[in-house]
Design goal:
Elements lengths: L1 H7 L4 H5 L3 H11 L1 E5 L1 H13 L1 H7 L9 E7 L18 E10 L2 E9 L2 H6 L9 E3 L2 E5 L18 H7 L3 H11 L2 E5 L4 H6 L2 H15 L2 H13 L4 E5 L3 H6 L11 E5 L3 H9 L4 H5 L3 E8 L2 E9 L22
Helix pairs in contact: 4-11, 5-8
């Protein structure tokens, strides 16, 4: 897990460079309730954030953190947006976010990325700890839109991706603007010691770089929390680390306990899988697309279809079948 890598980097060169910021993050990580999103659940979350923002907006009033401090993470290696990575903005291997509740109705999100070794070396960063990137900017997320007076307000830019996709769709464009108004950037509290010692110009540069990286991330985080709140979307099971931790003897720290979040198949999808002699694990290998529906009883996840690989495109349910082998 990325959370384990954060703990391994306590006292590293990167931690010293940023005046103990990683150490402070690790302290909070140990007390957080930790969730690892599977590839399919991460893609479901990304799909609703990037493809149907009006659905995400409808779920926002019911978004609540299930615990006071929560750590969420997922792999970006299978991300549908990986092809959009550039040299200046490479796609990381892993993404994590620490979510805290400074007060009721307010969420503070601190973002962490793990870049590939090749990406770090390409940028002239050869120390292993340089792969870990704790964002200089955090964001306040207020589902009600009623920010407390003490929260500094900042205006986020709407990414070019959203502009190109939704500027001609009034409903989705209004939803993007409304979602953007629910977030406000603030310097990450773990950088407190750095802020006191670094010249203002350098801090401005850190802020500008972090702002570019963070565009759109809070919407994915809101979607992830909504999935956790959903009444029918996911299965959550505790990871079995007994064998791994038995082998980690001596000075090797034990792996952090965490829960794994996977997409739950609907009864219709389960029946389809059974008819095709597929296991739940096999059919989950296919991206699941859908959106949120909000009822008085809670947030529900509605999936009109499942599909094969992205290059095949959307397949109607009656035409859906798995071709070839699936790696479990």
């Amino acid at each position: 897990m990325l959370a384990d890598i954060v703990l391994e980097n306590v006292g590293s060169a990167a931690d010293r460079q940023f005046r103990g910021a990683i150490t402070q993050l690790a302290t909070q990580l140990r007390t957080a309730q930790r969730f690892l999103f599977s590839d399919t659940s991460a893609e479901a979350m990304s799909q609703v954030a990037f493809a149907k923002p009006s659905s995400l907006l409808s779920a926002v009033p019911m978004v609540r953190l299930p615990f006071p401090t929560v750590w969420l993470e997922w792999s970006e290696r299978r991300s549908l947006h990986r092809s959009e990575a550039t040299e200046s903005l490479p796609m990381p291997d892993k993404f994590g976010v620490l979510l805290e509740t400074p007060e009721e109705g307010l969420i503070l999100a601190s973002y962490v990325w793990l870049h590939s070794r090749a990406s770090a070396v390409a940028r002239g960063l050869h120390d292993e700890s340089a792969r870990l990137n704790l964002s200089y900017l955090s964001s306040f997320i207020c589902p009600s839109g009623q920010f407390p007076d003490w929260v500094p307000r900042s205006k986020w830019e709407i990414s070019d991706e959203y502009v190109q996709r939704f500027s001609g769709n009034e409903r989705e464009w209004d939803a993007i603007k409304a979602l953007t108004s629910l977030e406000s950037a603030t310097p990450c509290r773990f950088y407190g010691a750095l802020i006191k010692t670094v010249p203002p110009l350098q801090l401005k540069q850190l802020e500008a770089s972090a702002a570019e990286n963070l565009v759109g991330e809070s919407k994915r985080v809101i979607a992830a929390i909504a999935l956790l709140n959903s009444r029918n979307a996911i299965d959550i099971v505790d990871a079995d680390l007994s064998k791994i931790n038995r082998k980690r003897t001596g000075t090797k720290p034990k792996r952090l306990s965490h829960s794994i979040v996977t997409i739950k198949l609907s009864s219709r999808q389960s029946a389809s899988a059974e008819a095709q002699h597929l296991s739940d694990a096999e059919i989950r290998e296919h991206e699941v697309r859908g959106h949120f529906k909000v009822r008085k009883s809670g947030i529900y996840w509605w999936r009109p279809f499942i599909r094969g690989r992205s290059e095949v495109g959307v397949l109607p349910r009656k035409h859906y079948r798995v071709i070839g082998e699936i790696q479990s």
